[in-house]
Task: structure prediction
Amino acid sequence: MDMFQHMEWDSVDDGLGELMDEPTYLSESPQSKSTASSISEHEFSCHCCYDILVNPTTLTCGHNFCRHCLALWWESSHKNECPECREKWEGFPKINILLRDATDKLFSEVVQRRRAEIQANPKISRSLLAFQRYGDNLGRSRTNQHKGAGFFFSGVLSALTCVAVMVLVYHWSYGVVEQHDLLISKPVSRWTPEEVVSWLEQLGPWAQLYREPFQQENVNGRLLLMLGDEELLKAPYSIENQAHRRAVLAELDRVKALGVKPPQNLWEYKAANAGKSLFLLYALKRSPRLTILYLYLFDYSETFLPFLHTCCPAIAHIDQGVESRFLETQVNPSWRQWAEFLVKYCLLPYQLIAEFAWDWLAVHYWTSRFIIVNAMLLSVLEGCALWRLWTRARIRTLPRKMWNHLWKMLSQGFAFALLWPFVPQFVCNCLFYWALYFSPIINIDLVVQQLMHPETQAL
Result:
């Protein structure tokens, strides 16, 4: 009986020895190698490229894919899910070392050939680099979540930001706006003589010459509406300068048409058009070209013409006075102005916004600077997005992206028009000042990410 068991163990040892010597035997016999490979190829194939796995990566669902196939799938789909069963993976997928060593030994020639092809393909190399950068950033973000000090300081920063927003809202809601709210909301017929003089002074420095006659005649709102060219030319007003009379009459026509004083600066415009100002602020940031087109179609004389004349001014004559500047903004632009405007509109739309804000530095000192900086940052972000389209050979997808963007902006604008009457004024003020003063800070971080890691940004 013992002899029989000893013979069985000897046979098992011989079988194990043959198995251990099998790789050497396969390397020596091409026929045996091809047989073993044909049997094992299906078990070691990627379900994306249907070829031998190269740097096999195992997902949480258990499926294995080539590393570069998974990177290409992640870059094109923008989803963290399995290409086969659509189950989302957790964390960042790692290379299965055991499976990689097995494929390298069994199919060394095929794996070496495929690796050479992968290294020679720049598109695959960029996808692998972006995928690895994504994993590194994901690991850093998770590490930062466990840092108590960083979490504490981020909470303090968020609290200070909320306090700053509330202070700004209180300051501008009850300070600056109320100073101008009377004239932009009070009917002209109810203006007092002091308010008429205040309106006259806002026309320009040249209007100071006629302040005293208006005060002596005690001109109120009703009398102001009755003034015409002949009355302004005669005593006691004696406005003999024709350009001055034209400027006063043109502003009087605007006042008669609106019934109130038209807005003269950003805060008055916000007080008179709260919903429209919030819409334009966000729309100019998200899609300046569509917003400027909207102003051209639906707000030509009041907003678009002054905007165009400010960004693309006409050639000024030497004998032209400062008082005729308002009249210039109401005439149709010349073909030179249109040509300059269209070039900037197509190529550098944010430059138009920066030039418009630059013209208002004397009125809105810090606000204009915030707008200019934000316009520069948004121009950089737009340039980076176009560069990614060009380098990744996706420029042909630009029409489809433009259509999707148009549809998205139209739907958001329609939703804003429906929900605007139900939004509290305090919430709108918070959104307005956040977009105006804190958006540049956020865009600085986005620009730094784009410039330091441009390959990690998904389109």
Remarks:
- Residues 273-456 form one domain.
- The chain has three domains: 41-145, 152-258, 273-456.
- The CA atoms of residues 162 and 430 lie 9 Å apart.
- The chain has a mean pLDDT of 77.
